[in-house]
Design a protein that fits this description.
Radius of gyration: 27 Å
Structural class: alpha+beta
Bound molecules: copper (II) ion
Number of helices: 5
Largest sheet: 6 strands, mixed
Low-confidence stretches: none
Mean pLDDT: 87
Helix content: 25-40%
Distance between the termini: 73 Å
Length: about 280
């Protein structure tokens, strides 16, 4: 009887904890309500199955308890029950996976007229690059990375000259404008994660991954690295500041382009001499 009671309390307590939990989601600040809907569907399916299994166990413990003169029958095979369980499990797994496929498709189908921001991860900071007036991002390669060129832009690509660089500082974005983020790592695997945006994706060395979103709320939102990337991983944080249009433009005016940064480096005499240039 105590086991039956414990199992029933476990089921009831889990459901109560789910609804009364103080650790709920951060208020959403992007268009990705679909992600929340998908998680809620997952909670419903797994919650109902968990509760049903635990209560069924409690029922069995009570119903088939030991009594004098009764023996258990050995019945290892039941084709009918196995078939029934296989069908129900398959339907449950399909219901868990299918909504995610629809949401994923939207997550990576970028609408027309979306602006672009590149997000660069490295041990252990976040940097960003915005296209200039031409709207294009110049070529980049990790072989160009040097103290003077921390993001590894191709110095010979004219398209990269007007690109705006934000190295190890906060990224600003205008509210209500869809943005496509291109994710690039210059060392190991990192993972860009802003909980309020319900957006998260790996940065893979040698690949450019992407997704898009629309920031819907003005404010400062913390960026976490959600892929363990070495001893500095917990400190790999930054912010996305979502501004109204005029604040955003004021911030943008203050940022330096790649050409300006290169010139400043040359003027300060810190630029590497020819024999110190990075190996191609
Ligand atoms: Cu990281």
């Amino acid at each position: 009887m105590p086991v039956v009671l414990m199992l029933v309390l476990l089921a009831a307590g889990s459901v109560a904890f789910h609804f009364a939990s103080p650790w709920w989601w951060t208020p959403i600040a992007s268009n990705w309500r679909y992600i929340d809907d998908t998680i809620i569907i997952t909670f419903w399916i797994t919650g109902v199955v968990f509760t049903a299994v635990v209560l069924f166990m409690a029922y069995c413990v009570y119903r088939f308890r030991h009594r004098e003169g009764r023996r258990a029958a050995y019945e290892p095979e039941s084709r009918k029950l196995e078939l029934w369980l296989a069908i129900v499990t398959a339907l449950g797994v399909a219901a868990l996976l299918t909504p995610g496929l629809f949401v994923w498709r939207q997550f990576v189908t970028v609408p027309n007229g979306t602006s672009v921001v590149e997000i660069i991860g490295q041990q252990w900071q976040w940097s960003f690059r915005l296209p200039g007036k031409s709207g294009r991002l110049g070529a980049s390669d990790t072989s160009y990375v040097s103290p003077d060129n921390p993001l590894g832009l191709d110095p010979n690509d004219p398209a990269g000259q007007d690109n705006v660089l934000i190295v190890g500082d906060d990224l600003h974005l205008p509210v209500g404008k869809p943005v496509k983020v291109l994710l690039r790592s210059i060392d190991v695997v990192h993972d860009f994660y802003v909980p309020e945006f319900r957006a998260k994706m790996d940065l893979m060395p040698g690949l450019v991954t992407y997704f898009w979103f629309t920031p819907t709320r003005i404010g400062t939102f913390e960026i976490f690295c959600a892929g363990f990337c070495g001893v500095g991983h917990p400190q790999m944080r930054s912010n996305v500041v979502v501004d109204n249009e005029s604040d955003y433009q004021a911030w943008l005016q203050k940022q330096r382009t790649f050409a300006q940064a290169q010139k400043a480096e040359a003027a300060s005499g810190k630029r590497a001499s020819a024999d110190e240039s990075p190996i191609r």
